[in-house]
Amino acid sequence: MTSSKSNSPDPARVLVIHGGARSGGLGQRLADFTVECLEKTGAQCRRHDLLADGFDPVLRLGSAEPHATRVEAAEEPLVARYQADAIWAHGFVVLHPVYWFAPPALVKGWVDRVFVHDVALRQKPEGSPEPLFGGKRALVVQTFNASRTVDLALFRGLAGSFWKRAVFASVGIGDVTRLALHELPQLDTERLARFEDRLAEALAKLARKQ
After folding, report:
1. Whole-angstrom Cα distance, residue 65 to residue 167?
2. Which of 33, 78, 126, 149 is 20 to 30 A from residue 19's alpha carbon, by CA?
3. 189 lies in a domain?
């Protein structure tokens, strides 16, 4: 009698990060929807709900520390878990409202404290850091009060470029998709449903890539 091993790939491991100035509301709905969609695909999912977790976004360095680095769980258990989850993940989904065409301080602080030396990149005495997240991918979901015209024509997609050209490119992630939901004051159920359809499709695509 012979046995055979399954040729099916391991499930995608996806880290969902979301944060803003308030709990509940549209941001919470989209984050919950994201996790549900990913779990339906069979993906393994972990979640960083920055506001609910009580995450401190402020990076504090000592006078002798040239840059942030990986922390020990005994020192800062939440940040250590966040860093370990970032290493674990095949893909990232970042959801946030856009303030001043940038992520909220809570989300920016996650980048400052998680994408650090010996986690997302390796600092060198000379030259550019070595990216450590090559082969991973990302989906950025942003919500705006501003119109699409203001976002893309006036500010040339600045809020999305922060993630694609600065954050993810610096750590070796070139496969980045961005979805934007504009004009929130005029949002109705029909337009939200269409956006959630697009989001579900993007999440399924993210989970398929191995």
Report:
1. 21
2. 149
3. yes
What percent of the chain is predicted at pLDDT more than 70? 95
Q: For the whole prediction, is pTM greater than 0.90?
A: yes
In a domain, 52, yes or no: yes
Q: What percent of the chain shows pLDDT beyond 90?
A: 80
Radius of gyration from C-alpha coordinates of the chain: 18
CA dihedral over 191, 192, 197, 202, signed as positive or negative: positive
State the CATH number of the domain containing residue 50. 3.40.50.360
Does residue 2 form part of some domain?
A: no
pLDDT at 5 over 70: no
Residue 142 neighbours by CB under 8 Å, 6+ apart: 95, 96, 97, 98, 159, 160, 178, 179, 180, 181
Q: Which two tokens stand for residue 169?
A: 């490119």
Better-scored residue on pLDDT, 92 or 9: 92
DSSP letters, 67-136, are S-B---TTT-HHHHHHHHHHHH-SEEEEEEE-BTTB--HHHHHHHHHHS-BTTTEE--SSSSPEE--TT-
Residue 168 domain-assigned?
yes
Instruction: Give the mean pLDDT of 17-37.
Output: 94
Q: Distance between CA atoms of 166 and 171, rounded to whole angstroms?
A: 9
**Domain total in the chain:** 1
